Amino acid sequence: ETGVTQSPTHLIKTRGQQVTLRCSSQSGHNTVSWYQQALGQGPQFIFQYYREEENGRGNFPPRFSGLQFPNYSSELNVNALELDDSALYLCASSLEPGTNEKLFFGSGTQLSVL
Amino acid sequence: QKEVEQNSGPLSVPEGAIASLNCTYSDRVSQSFFWYRQYSGKSPELIMSIYSNGDKEDGRFTAQLNKASQYVSLLIRDSQPSDSATYLCAVRNGGFKTIFGAGTRLFVKA
User: How distant, in Å, are the alpha carbons of A4, A55, B35, B84 from that of B38?
Assistant: First the structure.
């Protein structure tokens, strides 16, 4: 167990809807990264939050947005859901952003868009 | 060209054998390299990190790094059926993101 918790574990939505996924980071970690993992693929970086600010973003459209709260927990929001958004969404916390950053993953949220 | 490339496998080895997993990366300024293990239906977990050229050993696992060839490998000695999983190679270049390969599926036959 990494101490990183995600909710919900599973979610079914329809195309066009909006979804919010939640993540609590491991104690002592101030950095949260979100990844999307499609079936049979590696995790793809969505964005990272450090001390409540977005610290970097991958190649995802603006309808993917996030927040980090003062307790370092985080949310991932996806608007106007598309069928291709169906994937496992992983949250990872780390001690600090940086070169030697080690990621500790939560158990993920499996999102299905119908 | 993908930033991090791995053979998708599956790689099948008998119990007790050495499993060799390979990874290449495209960004020459990459500085940190990681191996994550992901069991089916679970999330990735970190098993090895390596930052300088050469070998790094941790129990049955050895990570090898060759920056000149932009090549990282993971050796698993005395492979066990419980090692059957997908192994993800990950690379960080000092920026804000860790980039993952698509993973290699490993099957260890009892």
Answer: 16, 26, 10, 9
